[in-house]
Amino acid sequence: MGRKNFACTLVLLVFLFPLSARQFGYSLSYGGERVKTSSYVGSSLRFVWEPFEWDHFNPSVGGEVSFGFDTEGVLRIPSNSIVCNVDLFRTLDHPFWFIAHNKIAYDPSIGIGVQVRYDGGLVRPALYLAASPLKFSQPDFWYEALSPFFIYSSEGWSWGVALFRFTYMFL
């Protein structure tokens, strides 16, 4: 019985975690958010899992915590998010060849997720929508710039932009 469980676990791991790619990483971003009652300027820390390396519709999942300063200069944690992103396509033949001195893939993405908001002492769930039209990747790094996001909660719509996000894939 023990060998059978070990074999099943090994087969499952091989299918879930391809051996040729780095799948886990973390990212840091800098940006801002405008909500109905206030604004935030700050950073986000995200942990990422990318199980595959598909050329089209490549998924990844991330858990993110945002922190920053509100309009009164108080450091706050406005939200936590879980987001599923999908790279629409990946190509080395793109018009942004001047971004880096070595080959870098262009792979714009869109994302959808859930967010827990901590606005005004209340905890409320929200829908999170994101886009990264300027996303570039290498085997160990992702670079994103000017990535807008939109949030819908019981307070209505809010929006923001991640000015720059750097992701390091380490495992």
Mean of residue pLDDT values? 89
**Uncertain residue ranges:** none
Widest β-sheet, arrangement of strands: 1-2-3-4-6-7-9-10
Gyration radius, in Å: 18 Å
Largest sheet, if any? 8 strands, antiparallel, barrel
Instruction: Please identify the top-level CATH class.
Output: Mainly Beta
Report strand %: over 45%
- CATH architecture, by name, is Beta Barrel
* CATH structural fold name: Porin
Broad structural category: mainly beta
Helix content: under 10%
Descriptive terms for the model:
171 residues, eight-stranded antiparallel beta barrel, mainly beta, globular, Porin
Report on the architecture of this protein:
The protein is mostly beta strands and 171 residues long. The chain has one domain: Porin. 9% of the residues lie in helices and 62% in strands. An eight-stranded antiparallel β-barrel has the order 1-2-3-4-6-7-9-10.
What topology emerges from the helices and strands here?
Layout: H1 2-16, E1 24-34, E2 39-49, E3 56-69, E4 75-89, E5 105-106, E6 109-119, E7 122-132, E8 134-137, E9 141-153, E10 156-169
TL;DR?
The protein is mostly beta strands.
